[in-house]
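JOB MANIFEST
job_type = single_chain_structure
chain_count = 1
residues = 2015
[input]
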Amino acid sequence: MEHFFQEAYKRNAPTCDELQPAPGAENEGGDEGVEDMAMLEDLHDGAIMHNLFLRYRQRRIYTYIGSILAAVNPYQPLAGLYERSAVELYARHHLGQMPPHIFAVANECYRALWRRPRSQCVLISGESGAGKTESTKLILKFLSAMSQHSLEVSSKERSSRVEEALLESGPIMEAFGNARTLYNNNSSRFGKFVQLHFNQKGSIQGGRIVDYLLEKNRVVRQNVGERNYHIFYALLAGADHQQMERLDLSPSCAYHYLTHSGGPPDNGADDKGTFQEVLNAMRTMHFTEDNICEILRLLAGILHAGNIHFVTAGGAQIASKSALSQTAELLGLNPDQLAEVLTHRSMILRGEEISTPLTVEQAVDSRDSMAMALYSQCFNWIVRKLNDRIRGKDDFKSISILDIFGFENFEVNHFEQFNINYANEKLQEYFNKHIFSLEQLEYNKEGLVWANIDWTDNGECLDLIEKKLGLLALINEESHFPKATDDTLLEKLHSQHSKNAFYVKPRVAVHYFGVRHYAGEVVYDVRGTLEKNRDTFRDDVLHLLRDSRLDFVYDLFEHVLSRNNRDTLKSSCKHRRPTVSSHFKDSLHSLMATLSASDPFFIRCIKPNTHKMPEHFDTAVVLNQLRYSGMLETVKIRRAGFPVRRPFQEFCCRYQVLMRDGLTAADARGRCAELLQRYDSSATDWQMGKTKVFLREGLEHRLEKQREVVVLRAAVIIRAHVAGYVVRKRYRRLVRCVLLIQKNYRAFYWRRKFLLLRWAALTLQTRLRGHMARRLVRRMLDESQARKREQEEQEERERQRLEEEQLAQEAFRRREEPCPAQQLVVEPQLAQKHHSPDTLKETLEESSQTLDLFSEEEDDKALRPQEASQVEEILRLEREIQSLQMKKERQELSLTEASLLRLQLLRDQELKHLEDEACEAAQHFLRSLNFDEIDECVRNIESSLGVDGDQEKEDGWRRADREEEDVDEGFGADDEPVKDSPNPSEHGHSDGQRTSGIRTSDDSSEEDPYANDGVVPPPPAAVLLLEPPCELIPPDEDSDYDQDDESAVASGGSMAALSNANDERWSPDGCRSSGTYNSSGAYRFGSEEAQSSFEDSEDDFDRLDTDDELSYRRDSVYSCVTLPYFHSFLHIKGGLMNMWKRRWCVLKDETFLWFRAKQEALKQGWLHKKGGGSSTLSRRNWKRRWFVLRHSKLMYFENDGEDKLKGVLDIRTAKEVIDNADKENGIDIITTERTYHLVAETAEDASQWFSVLSQVHGSTEQEIGEMHDEQANPQNAVGTLDVGTIDSACAADNPERPNSFVIITANRVLHCNADTPEEMHHWITLLQRAKGDARVDGQEFIIRGWLHKEMKSSVVGVAVGSKASLKLKKRWFLLTHNSLDYYKSSERGALKLGTLVLNSLCSVVPPDDRVFKDTGYWNVVVHGRKHSYRLYCKLLNEAIRWAAAVQNVIDAKAPIDTPTQQLMLQIKENSLNPEVVEQIYRRNPILRYSQHPLHSPLLPLPYGDVHQASGPRTCGTLQEEALAAFARLRQLEGAADPAPGIGALLRACREPRALRDELYCQLVKQTARPPGPHGPANLARWKTLACAACAFLPGRSVLAYVRLHLKRTREAFPGTEIERYAAFALDALKKTRGRENVPSLEEIRAVVERRDMNTTVHCHGGGCCKITINSHTTAGEVVEKLLRGLVMEDSRNMFALFEHNDTVEKAIESRAVVADVLAKFERLSFSPDEGGAGWKLYFKLYCFLDVDNVPKDSVEFAFMFEQAHEAVIRGQYPAPEETLQFLSALRLQYLLGDQSPGAHVPDTSQVFPMARLRTRVQNSARSFAPGVERSGTSERKRSSFLEGTLRRSLRGGSLGRRRSDSDNGLEAWLREEAEAIRTGMLEKWSKLRGVTREQAMRKYMALVRDWPGYGSTLFNVECGDGTFPLELWLGVSREAVSVYKRGEPRPLEVFPYERILSFGAPLSNTYKIAVDGRELVFETQTVMAIAKLMKAYVGMMVQKRYSNCQSLGGQCGVR
């Protein structure tokens, strides 16, 4: 090995001449060297190395190669190089302005986030020990500082402290993932990919850490001189005294895992400081103290596990019990179970578990695999914890940093070094691809003046490793073969690759192979490769760790899949687990894909020497690294190349600010050239390509700096104007506010003044009115007196006049006789009327003046009732509006499909209008960005934002009195800016605005275009009449649509028909517009879709069927821009070794396909044609014809050679094409002359034929021509290439084949050659497109392809599944990160037929061999929430690929939490606060009794079929089973005898484990707050809970939840039945172990009554006894109880319980639960075919350890006597018949005493082995058969009448009669012999008169003990390999295993346990014992009994030796 290593190193070592620098190189750059090696004038390896040496000598460790950084490890700290000041300094400068530094690269990467369109990544590469880890930490430090600075500058946002968390994650990852190696004291033993997510402001808002291939093997073994992981030494050095005692720790020298390498301790490491640093970092990362203690406890358990040693004694046995107990205690395991798992392998034989001992080597591997699994899962848990801490948003771009293990070449290299070097090969390929391959291809493509640079391509080395039949493939293939070894692997590697130039086959070494890597030749040791690749972590170890008492250990392995991907060992179906190398390969490809989507920065770390010494520069070591890393070629291409390239238009847009003056060119290319000429007139730093500008980095930095100056100056101006605008806007707003305040204040002021004046006026008026009233009164009094005097005088005069007249009229009065009284009354009235009019007039004038003063006040009082009436009117109007809105919503619910389409069309037009305006405004703003006229721009902005906004507000105020039907979609200048949303309803809509009741699938409330009747006219009545009513799909309903499963032809067809009928729709402006709806809304139908719908009419649309889809719509398979269809002939070559081949190439649906020949026919294939001539009814013959459809002509030939044409049909002129699929896949073509009946072979073929024919029938010539062009079928293609996977397509420089171009993907390079240059450039243009275009609904797809989907009508099963019973349809499936979708075809715009939304509860069933045998297809079943997809394909690899891809998507989904899980978490967090828990119990509705059935399970149960689970199933899914369990639970409440119901419930919920948890949660819910706590119904529920607690345990989290519920119940109901049942259940949960059966009815009744149960244990000889047991009593406890009762505690022999019936007897393990065995008896009693009835428990001797020292008068001696007699009558005591007769006589004497005439003698078979007699008679009969020679006198001859009769019967007569006579003769002979034996037995019995029972028993045992094999348990076995005779006895005793010929007393061979290496059952009914290199194989039905007995003997022997060693204080030999 050393010879090959030295030769490889010598070949790569430099010569003396090469080490010397070139002449003049010493002075180049002076004594300091050059900072950028691209500036070196003389380029060769020596100059580069000398430059690095000069800078390294001056402690300048960083050197540029363009933008690539070379870093030389100084192996010492450099003061001031990484201080805070250095960070601030480099943050202010561009790359190249300051001396080379890693901070400069980090700063350039940070700035590129905004300068470049993609995310950035930093690749740090180099050998182990070159400084990659430190470089990673420095980059993180710089980026964290920049993030903090951006937070301080940008805003007042509070930091999430992600930066601190990222920095603190470093010490944790280093402690757990780094170790000291030969070349590095802090070597990363895992790959780390750190991704930092930045926001637009430049701060880190989240991150992610991905680990790759942790070197688990280092935990258990290290190379010489290396150390284990740092954390182990840090724990032992830094733990305090209390921790050391609690974890039982010792110094590091005491642990095997830390001293395995044998190297000296690392005194230079500060392990104690590392421990404190890790603890502080964990606390910073929010690790709780419990988490820290659990991690330390796990680490201590791993260290103690390494001290478990083994010895050989019948297999591996543990020799160090103290280490075992310490490990078990620290890991929370049972010591006995741990010992069992480490030393035995469990397997299932005939439904029962059997343990097979391991060899010492296998036991060591088992121990090491457990330790590696514990550490690996702990490491993964820590990574998940760190990711939870740093997780954040990912809405901008990211910077990724890759720190992966460096190239390694040790003295001995193993499987780990092979994987590490493979990863470095991939990274080197990525480096070469970006630096050399793609760059030079780009130069050639763009036509630059360029001389190609040769570089070392490692592609062929990678092909050797990872391609088909490569090294990885062969290693994986061998790992899947059970009998494969490392030698067979090496033989395959040599035979397959010995002729490969990159493969090294050593001449002498027998265990090595080599690979010539890019960094040199490495020789690998193949030993241990297969075992490491398999990663042997047995399922029984996994289940043991899952049963740990520690929640931390349980959580680590809770979701780890077993080998069979099942929860138990009982699974018989095996599936391949991915190997380590295959998983690593997939992870590496995923990493490469992530890196390919980013712009890379490279840092090359260089190791100056191999001794880790500072200031020591080993030129040979450095030069070797420079050579293999391609550093010289890198310098050359960076020096001569143009790494910066931009398209012309992008360059102009980027540097438009520098093109303001002096540029005269009109096109973009000319402007670019003029600008570059201005900054570099010599044109040395730039070139112009065909489409791009190529720059060197220095020129770009100058341009960027100048642009930054100009932009900064312009930004200052813009900021000033914007600030002025903001201030002016604020001022105007302030002025408006001031005016408003002034207006209101003035109103208040004048109002108040008016009120004061009015009060004064009223006071004045009051006084004035009083004065005027008094004056009026006085005047009226004076006037009254004057009038009175005047009246009196007038009266006097009147009286005189009257008296005079009286006399004259006296005669008249006498004649008239007037009334005096009337006269007196009338006179005063007339007097009053005389003066009242004047008075009233004056009074009225005065009153009018008074009323004028009160008029204003009265008006105010009159307005208030008017305002109240207006409010009432407004309220009334609002109620009317609401009623109208409700009426309109009801009308909208009855809208038709066409109305919905019109609504959606109006919405799309509005969206498009807004988007066009926004784009136009943005483009106009960018074009008008003239900094000389910035004032005018600002004024325009002010006018557009301020004036227009104000005007809109004023207009809005003017419209305030109008009706509320206009919708304002604008916003004022002082409003908040509108968020960027594609939904127009989010711009300007308020809550009070009216919106439509229709909701789209995205659940967004959109504007109703019909809400404003004054703007949008209603559709014509004719259109409305054509619209049938349709039912809207509720948007929030969780529904699945799968149109393949249930029929929806009518709906699909009607909707498509309506789309055709109503292709003219109403636009928002009232005009009719024609078009098809094509947005991403909920409803998509077009004219072409009707055809698609009717194409799939046969069972294609079964029902709307999706998992969590919200709408029924037609989606495009891709939502990107459609690539055009193009085809032509090309010459293609797939690799360097392949030949050029001419192929017809087609670009269709983003897929590049190539065919052997051009596909000219639209469709072709075999069909059966019925009839011929003019009448098809007259001829009933069917003929198979070859049909070809070209254009519109359907031709049929006699054969597929198409040489004999039989007929032609014109499809376009046919009357009709009818799908007659109901009649044997038929198609009818009706023409004018006749009807053609065609029948396809399959329904799928018929559907395809009908689809094509119907399309041709209804198409024009032009459409048929287009179909003819695009008819390329991917199924017929020779190869396909997804355009989305193409990295680059560019022209190739191939002089031999001009017009060539290259298609580059991540996995292949495809060379193509076109006929003309135009055709070549056209192909390149079509194939080149931006990354990420291949998206579906905004998501990139993962995998896509054709699969067959099973329809619901088909029946598939293991027994009945066949190809004929399957009904499959071929569909185009597409897997995204969220769903599994399938389409009718791969065409763009194809109809989506179904969607299965994937979440964490979905499941995938991998391919099954049985289905393939039955159907011929490999199947993959994907179970969703409501539906399951059963998919089929022909290739196994394809099925595995789909299953793995879907499973990866499911695994990536976040777990679904139900309210019950959240409740359990809430209770767990508050378990120490009883008040909070009580509050939760009172308020949470889950903790409340329910009288109604459940609608969904309480826990998240996985989707899928449950019929595979054990036990009876009445439901199809776990969800249904859970709901049925709740129904059964409610039925138990009223049952008189709940025991049968409880048993049925427990059987239904026993498997799988998820149903157990569900049952417990249901029981807690129903017993938490019942309506009648002490009623019989609640007691029935508590009885069920008690029985469940005795039957099985729930999961860890549910168990804590149930325990808290039980404790709370005990405290809440003390002294009641409920409290007693709660205490019983709580105690049962502590004692319950794993059981195989649910409790029996007797046990359930005992549990219900909370009592023990009785059972009977039998003994041989007829004895029995009653014992008391409970649900937790083990067989070992029963045995101890019986031994105490029989006073046999001191017995040295081992007793056991046995399962016994008439045919079976087997020992019961001591840890088995007796109640479980009785439940098994009850189950078997109801299954006669499984063993029948009569099962009993027997108590017997199991291991005979001391048979000589048993007292003869003891009970134990009686047990030995009974079992000896049992062996005798079974024929397992080899003795002559005379001895057997004497033993029978002794047995009779023991049973009956002295012989007497009337004694009842038992049957002979009870005292004599009759089976042996029958065997002897049969052997004698066979010896008389013809052709069988009788041997001499060895056998006793009998000559009797029967013998003669038997001879005669065998000689003559027919065969049937001879057989009958033979049987009769045998029976007669047997009866004669039995009678003779009975006679001899009675004769001997008579001679035993006077012998007592005790004497008879002693004589019996004395005879039995005379046999040397006494004490052995004999098993009947057979040996078929010829080593021994066929029929054998296998005797198992306390010291050895013996092989006897059956019936012989002497053993053929004896094998002591010390010689036995292992034993077990490799196959059913086969037992194998490995002894000293021999393998003894026996066939037997008692495999389990033999294995258990041998295991018991070996265990007792090891225990005896261990006790002897302890008593003597000696040392046992250990290994």
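[summary]
The chain has a mean pLDDT of 76.
The longest strand covers residues 204-212.
exit_status = 0
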